[in-house]
Amino acid sequence: MNKIKAEIIKYSKKLNIKKLSALRSGNISVRFKDGFLITPSGKKYSTLKNKDIVFVSLLGEFDKKKGVPSSEWKFHQDIYKNKIEAKAIVHAHSTNATAVSTHNKGIPSFHYMVAMAGGHDIKCAKYATFGTRELSKNILRALKGRKACLIANHGQIAFEESLSKAFELAEEVENISLQYITSLKLGKPKILSFKEMKKVLSKAKNYKKDN
User: Is 168 considered catalytic here?
Assistant: First the structure.
């Protein structure tokens, strides 16, 4: 358990270092036994210690004496319950992904790397107050057939089979968001066809195995 907690702290600090989230915004979790370990509520990542990382069961139970989990633990719980393949989750308030999300729009297939999120586009979950079950439901809809999505007026979320891969995917989403914003400054970008994206998605399954 301590090794996993240390990994969560390492990547939480990287959220700040890589400028994916400032101070204490965003959150990270890793599936563990019959639940998950998650960053605590309201603590700066730079100050985190192993004892601060909180265990939450898939039933939503946690020991308040041992700490309070991130206020957004509910969507972590719901993703783990509904996505068997999810082993780690990274939620970030990264600048460019958040900027796109404030327009309540997803990212179309303007670039083939959109496929890294698992689909022919990146969806944007409808807005709901942070920490609510309504937000969880909106996120799950946007994650249908995908491993990452934007969250309207909020940020982005990504899950993967390991924390390192989930963090990398969050970085990809942020970079794609920046490229999309830049492309819009030049006018309406050309969108790759659904047929082409099907080919890309097929190739993408082996992309990370080869790199």
Answer: no
Q: Per-residue pLDDT tens for 122-175?
A: 999 999 999 999 999 999 999 999 999 999 999 999 999 999 999 999 999 999
Statement: the pTM of the whole predicted model exceeds 0.85: yes
User: Taking the alpha carbons of 27, 34, 31, 157 in that order, is the dihedral positive or negative?
Assistant: negative
* Angstrom distance (rounded) from CA 53 to CA 27: 11
Which residue(s) pair with 31 in the sheet? 36
Rg for the chain (alpha carbons), in Å?
A: 17
Q: Distance (Å, rounded) from C-alpha 66 to C-alpha 82? A: 27
Cα-based angle 134, 160, 119 (whole degrees, multiple of 5): 75
Burial class (CB in 10 A: 0-12, 13-18, 19+), 202: exposed
Tell me which residue has tokens 């939480």.
12
Are residues 150 and 106 in contact, defined by beta-carbon separation less than 8 angstroms? yes
Assess contact for 28 and 21: CB atoms under 8 A: no
- Which of 7, 61, 72, 196 is catalytic? The answer is 72
